[in-house]
Amino acid sequence: MTRETRAAWGFTAPVLTIIVAVFVLPTLLAMAMAFTDYSIYALADPRNLHFTGVNNFTTLFATPLFWRAIGNTLLFALLGVPMAIGASLFAALLLNDATVRWKPLWRVVLFAPFVTSVVATAVVWRFLFNTRFGLINQALGAVGLPGIDWLGDPNTSIPAILIFVTWKIFGYNMVVFTAALAAVPQDLMEAARLDGAGRWTRFRHVTLPAIGPTLVLAGVMSVAGFLQIFAEPYVMTLGGPAQSTTTILYFMFDEGFKWWNLGQASAVALVLFLMILAVTLLQTRIARRNEWL
Amino acid sequence: MKHRRAIITNTLVVALGLLTIAPLAYMVIVSFMPRGESGTLPIPLWPSRWSLENYHELLVRRQIDGAWFDYRILPALKNSIGVAALSTLFGLLLTVPAGYALAKLRFRGRERVVQLLIAALVVPGQVAMLPLFLIFRQLGLVNSYAGVILPGLAGIFGVLFVRQAMLAIPDELIDAARMDGAGEGRIFVSIVLPLLTPIVITLALFLFLGSWNDFLWPLIVLADQHRYTLPVAVAAIAREHAADGELMMAASVVTTMPVLLLFLALQRFYLTGLLGGGVKG
Question: Which residues of B touch A107 (CB under 8 A)?
């Protein structure tokens, strides 16, 4: 072994050991646990642990709340990704405009919510969404609109949480998109302008293809992020009203750490993993077909 | 025409900026209102008088009917600072040398390790949490600071982030030092680290904020209220004292302000790091 090789393993072995110990090994164990009846009884005495095949999955697929959680989570992603990506793109296009002043200041201001704690800001937004004493219904009332029971109505609970989430995260992709916009070829833009292309045509045929790969990548990561929503309903709605904000992770947390059905919860974790994997593969394929990547 | 456009875009950006900052500003304002004022109509936008009673109520331990009572926010603040500081320190010690080695040191299996790390990014961390809890329970790590910190030290992102930055640094400097007979440890400390300083600051900021804001894992592994980190403590209070607006806003201020100030002080590193550290193969 050369001195360089020895040094290389000395530098990498500690972190690789920890990655295997607290990430790889537990992930493999989770996959195994999903096929056992690990519950509070096995927690007390390992002899109560049995291999049960696909039992957890058949039970899960027969549980209405599980499907509810899947549906809610998909709704979060389906509505949330366009909302968040749209807000990010809007802010980035605005910051990219030559006429806007004090750009560094606005960049920091618009990014600030991203670095705050989800729990603390969820508490703030729950207060803003308060039906009687919340600032949002007050603002609606000021323009003559009726107040909304944002977090108390199953039809508005997901949109309300998504408004909060969009506010919290749009700054991140805004910064990413701003960098991508700065790399849009200016000579191409100028040529399109000389050909008489309008603002929208130039956006559609010059800007959009140029930032396409960045948009797709941001899309993948946003979907994966929305599939993992947990803290927001935990703090703002406790998964309600009428289980309208119970997400996959919320369901997993209750199943695992409230009822101690750890085998069942592992099956939920496995389903979540497969969903994220599927989304990632799908989006990469779409990107390839459009020759963006 | 150009002038009119400037007015429109600048108005829009000011409106967006105000809209973004409003919830945080309102949080601070309400936290200084006298108890109960935010629950009156019409909703006050400014305190009738600036009061510290919410912070007093929240932070000071006192006797009620002979028993000591507090919201355990000060212990949580101390826990959060300790946990985040240790996570950052150990995170850097583990990931920076590894990221450097995976970019610049030639050894068999290097490309394979990088590929596996990139593939591992697809697996959500929550999958590992259930077995991890059981393992930690066996090891007696449940309810301990080590139990909170350890999972965060599996710094796959950090390693790839440092590697990416390191790839941009030319080999010549390192090779020259090696020709002069410098040992690998010496090369890392006296040549590589100074070059990596901005990246290390950025990563330190990411690690600190990540640990400070982390919620699900501390919620799982910490059962003892005296060990709670701030987000866990605030979530617990929020579930019990939902109606107490001013008190909750004060708790949110205590939780968000330290990291907001840290971000403002080091925003240049944070925002450039966000772009420079695109994790790619």
Answer: 271
